[in-house]
């Protein structure tokens, strides 16, 4: 179908990998036909909506934003970095199965949350830490968030990061529109606004299926929307759509940020569209535009 290729030149960039372009095109056409009223977008946050790197430097995750002297001391920061050095390579290791990774991810998150709780972090300091963190959303994020809001398409941000920080980043980026829903690890503060724990079940990179069934499935805004555009940067993110009751069309986009050569094959196998070292929302925005512009695209 050459017409579609013409309408989506973004899919022909060298950084775009697809196992089955035909399937992608058919899914896009079906989603376009069904219209924005049937669509929901489910996205990971860290390294998916936020950038992996900027000007050659790694950008922070929501956990790493907490590495600010207003919030935690040097000792705690040093311990968190040590844990990152141990566990992040495990998180992205293509030779391990998610079953093998799960206990280690639980260990990582649990240790980090314990360290944070010891720091008596004050809620009032979070906004400033975010402001000074250098966190940055992918280029073109405004178009992405604004278009979804305009069309009243729900956006579920599903993150194993820290929910309070994530919300602050989205707020400071001025895109926390009413259609945005967040599932994440939220801090629990005492009456004085001091961190005393984390709320709810722990979400890590490889248990998003449980979170989807428990926390996303009941959301009334998402229930009657069977067409899903999913964005992630980890194979674990694919489970974010497992709570959708009767999915009709699912299109998955994976950002491959790191260890590109080692992981390309598994990403192409798992995601419909893989974006290699792409720090922008250009492709997701083009997909959205296609799906939601029925008349002129037909
Ligand atoms: P995400 O689900 O929004 O991508 O958030 C999870 C990411 O957070 C995951 O890729 C690993 C990262 N992370 C850190 O950077 N530092 C930490 O201390 C922990 C526990 C996770
Ligand atoms: Mg991520």
From TrEMBL:
Annotated family: Belongs to the pyrimidine 5'-nucleotidase family.
Matching Pfam families = UMPH-1
The UniProt entry's GO CC annotations, sorted and at most eight, read: cytoplasm
InterPro entries given in the database record: HAD-like_sf (IPR036412), HAD_sf (IPR023214), Pyrimidine_nucleotidase_eu (IPR006434)
Its Gene Ontology molecular function terms? 5'-nucleotidase activity; magnesium ion binding; nucleotide binding
**Keyword annotations of the record:** Cytoplasm, Hydrolase, Magnesium, Metal-binding, Nucleotide metabolism, Nucleotide-binding
What biological processes does GO assign it?
nucleotide metabolic process
The taxonomy runs:
Eukaryota, Metazoa, Chordata, Craniata, Vertebrata
Quaternary structure per UniProt?
Monomer.
Native species: Gadus morhua (Atlantic cod)
Q: Which reaction does it catalyse?
A: N(7)-methyl-GMP + H2O = N(7)-methylguanosine + phosphate; CMP + H2O = cytidine + phosphate; a ribonucleoside 5'-phosphate + H2O = a ribonucleoside + phosphate
Q: This protein is called what? A: 5'-nucleotidase
Per UniProt, subcellular location reads as: Cytoplasm
UniProt entry tagged with the keyword Magnesium: yes
Residue ranges annotated as coiled coil are: none
Principal localisation: cytoplasm
Annotated function: Specifically hydrolyzes 7-methylguanosine monophosphate (m(7)GMP) to 7-methylguanosine and inorganic phosphate. The specific activity for m(7)GMP may protect cells against undesired salvage of m(7)GMP and its incorporation into nucleic acids. Also has weak activity for CMP. UMP and purine nucleotides are poor substrates.
Question: What is the E.C. number?
Answer: 3.1.3.5
What's its top-level EC category? Answer: hydrolase
Q: Which domain of life is it from?
A: Eukaryota
